[in-house]
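Hi W.,

Here's what went into the run:
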Amino acid sequence: MKHIAVLQFPGTNCDLDTKYAFEKLGCNTTVVWHKENKLPENTDLVVVPGGFSYGDYLRSGAIAQFSPIMKEVVAFANGGGKVLGICNGFQILTEVGLLPGALKRNIGLHFISKFQTLKVVNNSNNFLQKCKKSEVLNIPIAHADGNYYIDEAGYQELEANEQILVRYCDNKGEPLVVNGSVTSIAGVCNRNKNVFGLMPHPERALETILGSEDGIKMLEGLIA
Amino acid sequence: MTAIVNIFLKEGVLDPQGKAIHHALDAMNFEGVEDVRMGKQIVLKLTATNKEDAQKEVEQMAEDILANTVIEDYTIELI
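Here's what came out:
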């Protein structure tokens, strides 16, 4: 059985959804308060869930990066451990430097909350190994600061190393401007492909009756 | 001593809030606005008395947390 650690900061609000999701997939899941300075033993995957850590003060994720548990998460990632950041978790992972780029305010300034189609760009990684390349997934998004920015040199590196995970797209898989992200990027991974971040919420897409179960094959890749 | 840190998105990084303010000014018939950039200002009261030390200290703060240098530039003014 895989052991998942789900972090919880003041203002995190997707911790229990994320716990539910991984338990539904048969994992042992522990919620870890940000003041802890140790991850549970045998942790196979750390998930930094969505929400509004520290009320998004200063910048989304800017203050959470200095919580005690984050030192441990950085060491875990640098040792090859798998880390997934969803929404605010993605913002925290870029702020702490585990993922390249940064997330700015959406163009149009609206908080966008809806189901959104995504195109799988690369599946040569643990996270998306169960998805087909170019497959279109239906996953909810809910964010105000999801406008992914990276400079040209950084972008070329992402392309060359197959680090772009998913792009916002229309029903036919054509790239779609949703929040102003560089080339409609919705998620990326690091060079070593053990740290993943995305704005959409796969943990909210586990049941057809609630709109989509496409999140299952995303999360399953990480526990395969 | 007081340090005033001004933080703005870098030149060339699209500023959605600045753009929205620009649209609003246009809609209100304020003419002659070429560009609008929106930033934030952080005011720090320091115990330091030496300007050089204070400058170094605040620069470190700006690099470490106050600004995200992937997308933002900052200026420091000491009074």
